[in-house]
Amino acid sequence: xxxxxxxxxxxxxxxxxxxxxxxxxxxxxxxxxxxxxxxxxxxxxxxxxxxxxxxxxxxxxxxxxxxxxxxxxxxxxxxxxxxxxxxxxxxxxxxxxxxxxxxxxxxxxxxx
Length: 112
Prior knowledge:
- Keywords: Methyltransferase, Transferase.
- InterPro entries: DUF1156, SAM-dependent_MTases_sf.
- One of its GO terms (biological process) is methylation.
- By secondary structure, the protein is mostly helical.
- It has a domain at about 5-80.
- It contains 4 helices and 2 strands.
- Strands 1-2 form a two-stranded parallel sheet.
- The chain is globular, with a radius of gyration of 14 Å.
- The protein starts with 8 loop residues before the first helix and ends with a strand.
């Protein structure tokens, strides 16, 4: 089985950059922030990395998830045709962050 981008050495270089971008939500959300909630931008980054092959172009990955922007919560991710045949299952959806970002990435089916 082919390794995925999330399993590659390249992804470990991106993770600190994802963390550096902050929570991925507008500042006024801090008023009602639920501490167990995953930042939307992080969810988007990990979902895309879990679906793409290990040898996927890192610059293209960053473009799809909008890593190169200063405000990741301000821009929608790039919808990519390569995601449309995937199904995302999150039986304990919680706040729905991962399901929302899976749909925004263009996954064909999202079940939460």
